[in-house]
Write a structure and sequence with these properties.
Elements lengths: L7 H17 L12 H8 L3 H13 L3 E4 L3 E4 L4 H10 L4 H22 L2 H20 L2 H17 L4 H9 L1 H12 L12 H9 L2 H10 L16
Antiparallel strand pairs: 1-2
Helix pairs in contact: 1-3, 5-7, 5-10, 5-11, 6-7, 6-10, 7-9, 10-11
InterPro entries: GntR_C, TF_FadR/GntR_C, Tscrpt_reg_HTH_GntR, WH-like_DNA-bd_sf, WH_DNA-bd_sf
Protein name: GntR family transcriptional regulator
Organism: Streptomyces echinoruber
Length: 230
Amino acid sequence: MPLSHPRRSALSEQVIAALRNQITSGEWPVGSRIPTEPELVEQLGVARNTVREAVRALAHNGLLDIRQGSGTYVAATSELAGVMHRRFAGADPRHVAELRSTLESGAARLAAQRRTEKDVKQLDALLRRREEAWESGDAEAFVTADATFHLAVVAASHNDVMTAMYADLGEVLRDWLREDVGRELTPETYMDHTRLLDAIRSGDADTAAAEAASYPLLCRPGRFTPPAGD
């Protein structure tokens, strides 16, 4: 529906807010290409320069990635997620794995203590989707399904701060997983998450924490060289 036409600065803010809502709502997922500039002009009922200004503003904030000759893509779901993606894009992969292990272990422990029946049903469904993605052989689909399952585990902790932080780190963690899994799914990169879900279901906090902590660090042979004492 076309936006109202107040003064230019307020209109630009409306367009920025409308585009941001498409991203944060999941209507435009991370990695997807957003509609072209002419399409946005038609959808929003505003001038081309206003759309261009809004897109540039969101690109500056890290939510969008403008690729000359290709289009504009969603890079992150929040400004903080965009900042984190840029900040940690070149981080040592082992350090990313250790961060993920620490966050997920604590979240899984809380999830085992606090999960609801609704949480468990959702985790069951997401684990099945993860298995289906693996069986399809589509590496990107598997990365997405795996990341969604792990975010749901963190959400089952019912710690809103931890969940928000993990979500903001989402693209950093997906980049790590893409690199670890590789372009083709191979048996040595597969990790069964059934024990993790069973531990959460049964309320076994220690086992849930141990299972979650082990996954990111069980990388393919030769992936990392553990430091002395590991």
